[in-house]
Amino acid sequence: MKGISWLLRIVAVCIAVVHTTAAVLNQSMNEDGINYLDMGDAWMRGDWIEAINGVWSPLYSVVLGVVVNLFQPATSWEFPVVQVTNLFLFLVALACFEFFWSGLTRRYQSSLVPTEVGFHPLAWVVLGYSLFIWTSLNLIEIWAVTPDMCVAALVYLSAGLLLRQGKGPGGIGESILFGLILGLAYLAKAALFVLGLTLLVLWAIAGEGGNRQRLRRAAISLAGFVIVAAPFLTALSLKTGTVTFSQVGTFTYLKHVNGMNYPYPRITPGMMTGNPEHPPRQVLKNPPVFEFATPVGGTYPLAFDPGYWTAGIEPVVVMAQQGRALIANGVFYFDLFVRQQGLFLGALFLLLGSSFRRLQEMRFRSSESVLVLWGLAALAMYSLVYVIPRYVAPFVLLLLAVLTSFVRLPESDGARRVVAAGGAIMIIGIWLNIAALNLEGLAALTGMMPDTPTASGQFSDGHHADHPAIAEELGKAGVDKGARVAFVGYSFPAYWARLARVQIVAEIDPEEVDRFWLLDSSTRSEVIDKMSGTPAEAVIAEPFGLETTPEGWLPLGSTGYLLRYLK
To answer: Of 410, 445, 480, which marks where a domain is finished?
Structure first.
């Protein structure tokens, strides 16, 4: 099977390289990625106060900071370098998956008795790599500049270590390593603080071995977890003034369940309580103009530290809102497991149904059962607030992979045919989804179908921004690195600001941008005067379809963007 494994490994890498190449050529970036890059810079220059963030976790930002600091890419190469870094992280995730899969394979094959039929080794290997390719490239998406590939790698490594310890008594070193990896997973994504502790509890309750042995291993692993997690947790708590492991849960609940508007939250009684302790400073009411130059850093301070700007606002659990969130997330899971993987799950459940009698005889106190419960816990936790594919991808793989390892039919020629047919259907189901995504991407790249909003930089108004060109034109126009600017546009995807190393410190409320250009010249001048009173040195505007360049504005080359000096 080594030859097949190598072939599938090469297929996985080749597809990832194609995706990365498309991302490099398209200068792909996303909103979260800018904040991780800014944090990475802060880590590299030793600015710990700015680097410690309650919403964006530190591990991925450190990786990006090291890479950017090491290679010092030119303006047009920074985003491609990030994409190549994501490809490297994909390779790390692949290695961690193989560690997990080899452990699951050994346990599956050793648990089959001569009177049972399981998957043929060829089908088993193809199933594993197919699940990895689908979850890593369809669900996580390698071009997205997020920590989710890091999370996947650490989840697979944790699962592999758990399976390895389930084979025997497990030494202190293995138990500590297990806890250290779970701690690193927390540093990659705050949700893994809760899910890491959940796994330790499940392991202590439902893992293999005697009660004392399970508790001892879990306690040792907890110590390893604390060693890694405690320094960041302490630093974050000191910075925010309250004991916390993250602010992302509160922010996400406010935004996606309570319906909080951001970056300019409007308090709706009954849906949230309190008032922001330090909201952006409004310098003009009509149209709304805001300034937020201090004390938060980053390219776009409102995106860089949402926890600071929303401090003082508390979520409220309202059954109607919570019910809508559960329904929306339930629809997502239905789409994921039924529409996308209905063939896979249909065949798997039929095989598991045929295996039920044997499963009743098996001990369910096992590492595999712990991983199934862990995967279900992750899906349940996200369903309460907000679910998107990349959040749950590694747990979907764990859940489907371990459930697949429960298939074992009584020995017979008919059973062999049933398992072979079921395995073939499962593989076809996965690859239909992989093929669909890649065909859609190919059609978009070749112009055979309209582009859709992606991480590539498409603005909400349909304009495609050439971010390196905008950044270079700003430099030519005399806007130096470190300058503070105001923006007339939607600032979250203003990736050119990161490349130009300027900071957006003032803006018109994005919902009022269109109205700004329809104002008469005197009112528009009043808006510019108010912006002049902020620390911004210049104001930049995204394209609005103007036939002529307004008086006082300079075109930034052929990008369609406009520049106006304030000071």
So the answer is: 445
- Per-residue pLDDT tens for 123-170? 999 999 999 999 999 999 999 999 999 999 999 999 999 998 865 555
Judge if 437 and 542 occupy the same domain.
no
Preceding omega of 73 cis (within 30 degrees of 0):
no
| CB distance 23 to 146 below 8 Å | no
Cα separation, 310 vs 300, in Å, equals 15
Q: Which two tokens stand for residue 529?
A: 């005067």
Total tally of structural domains belonging to the chain = 2
In a domain, 457, yes or no: no
What six digits make up the tokens of 115? 């009177």
Query: Which residue segment(s) compose the domain that 204 sits in?
Result: 2-236+322-445
DSSP collapsed to 3 states, 449-469: CCCCCCCCCECCCCCECCHHH
Please indicate, yes or no, whether residues 546 and 416 belong to a single structural domain of this protein. Answer: no
User: Residue 377 is encoded by which pair of tokens?
Assistant: 């816990």
Distance from the Cα of residue 499 to its chain's centroid: 22
Number of residues written out for the chain: 567
pTM over 0.70: yes
Number of other residues whose CB lies within 10 A of the CB of residue 81: 18
- Per residue in 323-373, pLDDT (tens digit) is 999 999 999 999 999 999 999 999 999 999 887 666 655 555 589 999 999
**What's at 15, amino acid-wise?**
I
CB atoms within 10 A of CB 361: 6
Q: Is 320 helix (H, G, I), strand (E, B) or coil?
A: helix
